């Protein structure tokens, strides 16, 4: 009667081989993740304007659903320190993280809060000859 020996070998893989397989899977996953982020970094380094263009397109798409925007590509700036702008009436309700879209040909400024999908302020802008020279 050798039934006892047959019951001991019920598992095809030992605990050690399962551990080795798990470690290999983890290493492959980490290598794939590192490769993905390196590829993203290389792409951004090769084309630094791509991120800015994507942000501009995204914002214009969202704002155009809320307001009839001019048919031009705006200059976009993100508000990082609202305290520097608090003296200007246009920016009284701004928060850090809001976006300012300036449509120079249409002479229009749009203040947009993306996280709430909300227009904060819209108004005309005046561009003087000195400002045009500085922007060129």
What is the strand and helix layout of this fold?
Elements: H1 3-8, H2 15-46, H3 49-64, E1 75-78, E2 99-103, E3 108-113, E4 118-124, H4 129-135
Antiparallel strand pairs: 1-2, 2-3, 3-4
Structural notes for this entry:
With 136 residues, this protein is an alpha+beta fold. It has two domains: 14-46; 59-135. Helices cover 45% and strands 16% of the residues. It contains four helices and four strands, in the order H-H-H-E-E-E-E-H. The chain has helices spanning 3-8, 15-46, 49-64, 129-135, and strands at 75-78, 99-103, 108-113, 118-124. A four-stranded antiparallel sheet has the order 1-2-3-4, with helices on one face. The chain is elongated and about 75 Å long. The relative contact order is 0.09. The mean pLDDT is 85.
Distance between the termini: 95 Å
Query: DSSP strand (E) fraction?
Result: 15-25%
> What is the string of SSEs from the N terminus onward?
HHHEEEEH
Overall geometry comes to elongated
For the CA atoms, what is the radius of gyration?
28 Å
So what's the oligomer here? single chain
Weakly predicted, low-confidence segments: none
Placed side by side, the strands forming the largest sheet appear as: 1-2-3-4
The overall pLDDT, averaged over residues, is 85
Number of strands: 4
Q: Level of helix content?
A: 40-55%
Number of H- or I-type helical stretches: 4
Give the biggest beta sheet.
Answer: 4 strands, antiparallel
């Amino acid at each position: 009667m050798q039934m006892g020996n047959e019951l001991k070998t019920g598992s095809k893989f030992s605990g050690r081989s399962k551990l080795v397989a798990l470690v290999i899977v983890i290493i492959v996953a980490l290598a794939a993740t590192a490769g993905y982020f390196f590829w993203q970094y290389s792409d951004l380094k090769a084309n630094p304007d791509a991120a800015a263009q994507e942000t501009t397109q995204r914002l214009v798409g969202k704002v155009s659903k809320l307001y009839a925007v001019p048919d031009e590509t705006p200059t976009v700036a993100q508000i990082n320190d609202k305290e520097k702008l608090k003296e200007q009436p246009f920016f009284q309700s701004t928060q850090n993280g809001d976006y300012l879209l300036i449509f120079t040909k249409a002479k229009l400024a749009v203040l947009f809060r993306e996280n709430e999908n909300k227009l904060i302020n819209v108004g005309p802008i005046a561009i003087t000859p000195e400002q045009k020279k500085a922007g060129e």
